[in-house]
Amino acid sequence: LQEAISKSTFVFVNADEFVEFPRPITHKIVYVGGIAVDKPKPLEKELKKVMDAAIGGAVLISFGSIAESKKMTPTIKTAFVHMMRSFPQLTHPNMKAFVSHGGMNSLTESIRAGVPIVCIPLFGDQMRNAKMVEKRNVAVLLDKQNLTADALVWALKTVLIDDRLISAPHQLHSARIDNE
Question: Which residues, listed in sequence order, are joined to residue 61 by a DSSP beta bridge?
Answer without folding.
Answer: 99
